[in-house]
Amino acid sequence: MRRAPMSQYLPTADSVNAVWAVLHQFGGASRPGNSGPGDRFEELKPVRLP
User: Fold this and answer.
1) What pLDDT sits at residue 26?
2) Is the Cα dihedral 28, 21, 30, 40 positive or negative?
3) pTM of the model
4) Residue stretches of the chain with pLDDT short of 70
5) Biggest alpha carbon–alpha carbon distance for the chain
6) What 3-state class would DSSP assign to 23?
7) CA distance 15 to 36
């Protein structure tokens, strides 16, 4: 019996961002010192190319 590659079981960035967004919508927050992806968006947002 073949096993699926381990990468199949690892969460993707999209799923982590989605979970963070749902948590935020319902009034939740990240733990202090362990910011979620949306908490640092302004710092890490994509750069607009000329």
Assistant:
1) 92
2) negative
3) 0.52
4) 1-11
5) 51
6) helix
7) 12
In sign, the C-alpha dihedral spanning 6, 7, 8, 13 is positive
Give the C-alpha separation, 5 to 34, whole Å.
Answer: 29
- Could you tell me how far CA 11 lies from the centroid of its own chain? 9
Q: Which residues contact 20 (CB under 8 A, 6 or more apart)?
A: 30, 36, 37, 38
Tell me, rounded to whole angstroms, the distance of Cα 4 from its chain centroid. 23
pLDDT value of residue 6: 56
| SS3 category, 50 | coil
- How many C-alpha atoms does 47 have within 13 Å on its Cβ side? 2
1: DSSP letter: -
